[in-house]
Amino acid sequence: MPADRPESIEKIVARFQKAADPKRRYEQLLWFAKKLDPLPDEHKTPENKVPGCVSQVYVTAELVDGKVIYQADSDAQITKGLVALLIKALNGLQPEDIVALSPDFIKDTQLDVSLTPSRANGFYNIFKTMQQKAQALAGGAAPGALLS
Q1: Which helix (H) or strand (E) holds 77?
Q2: 16 pLDDT exceeds 70?
Q3: Residue 142's pLDDT band (cuts 50, 70, 90)
Q4: pTM above 0.85?
Q5: Which residues are catalytic?
Q6: Are 48 and 60 in contact (CB under 8 A)?
Q7: pLDDT tens for each residue of 61-94
Q8: Domains with residue ranges and CATH for the chain
């Protein structure tokens, strides 16, 4: 367990590690999907679409009081669960902390072994998109600016 990981990620890792059975891990993901706030349709634009995902995934990021706040949605429940998990893990962190993170924590959740290769690839594409949006916000976007 890397010491430099945010507590939000550690909590998620711990939660998934309790679910020894791959079916339980999927149930956890679906629970995350259900908890995800809906993304307004006006944010479902080509600029917010995550490239390289089989399903439709949209991510927005804004800077609020120096912290990144993401919103996202997907048309596939498992992918929606993955994006919800990432939002739970990354929301409220500073942009530079998100940019410095490694997506390797997915291995600690053991979800990577349960996911199909295209979903695992999707996870990394979503993570990279979220990092790029955080990087752009760190690059001096106005406070409260919504980054598409």
Answers
A1: helix 77-90
A2: yes
A3: very low
A4: yes
A5: 53
A6: yes
A7: 999 999 999 999 999 999 999 999 999 999 999 9
A8: 7-47+55-140 (3.90.1010.10)
Sole residue written with tokens 């349709």: 41
H-helix or E-strand containing 72?
Answer: strand 67-74
Q: How far apart are the C-alpha atoms of 75 and 24, rounded to whole Å?
A: 21
Tokens in use for 57? 């995934």
Residue 4: what pLDDT?
73
Task: Say how far apart CA 83 and CA 46 lie, in whole Å.
Answer: 17
Taking alpha carbons only, the member of 106, 101, 100, 136 closest to residue 121 is: 106
How many Å apart are CA 93 and CA 142, to the nearest integer?
17
**Cα end-to-end distance, the chain, whole Å:** 33
72 burial type by CB count under 10 A (0-12 exposed, 13-18 middle, 19+ buried):
buried
Is the pLDDT at 1 greater than 50? The verdict is: no
CA distance 46 to 99: 22
